[in-house]
Amino acid sequence: MSFNLANMSFEERAQIEAEKARLFELWQSNLGKAKADAARLIAEKPRRKGKWAEWVRAELDGMAPPEYANMVRSEVNKLMAAASANR
């Protein structure tokens, strides 16, 4: 299977572009919410202590659509990396 768009039919290219546009719209309209959810999850860390990571995984698994959960996961990872860098 080739990923060269020039080797694909117009319909295949149109589907790929439509999916990219859908994902961009999802990202653009939900970035603020994803950052707020990530901050909420991070804020629970002192209270949840050793069970925090397990709790975060459960929270992320309950989020829909999966693309949104991935956005929140990415924001949590960024916040955790920033916190580690500031130590």
Written overview of the protein:
With 87 residues, the protein is mostly helical. The protein has one domain. Helices cover 78% and strands 0% of the residues. The chain is built from 4 helices and no strands. It has helices at residues 10-43, 45-48, 52-61, 66-85. The termini are far apart.
Number of strands: 0
**How many helical elements?**
4
Overall mean confidence score, pLDDT: 93
The helix-strand sequence is HHHH
Query: What is the CA-atom radius of gyration, in angstroms?
Result: 17 Å
From the spread of the alpha carbons, the general shape counts as elongated
- Termini separation comes to 46 Å
Structural class: mainly alpha
β-strand percent reads under 5%
Organism: Pseudomonas oryzicola
Protein name: DUF3106 domain-containing protein
Summarize it.
It contains 4 helices and no strands. With 87 residues, it is mostly helical.
Features of this protein?
mainly alpha; 0% strand; 87 residues
Summarize the helices and strands and which ones pair or pack.
Layout: H1 10-43, H2 45-48, H3 52-61, H4 66-85
Helix pairs in contact: 1-4
Protein name: DUF3106 domain-containing protein
Organism: Pseudomonas oryzicola
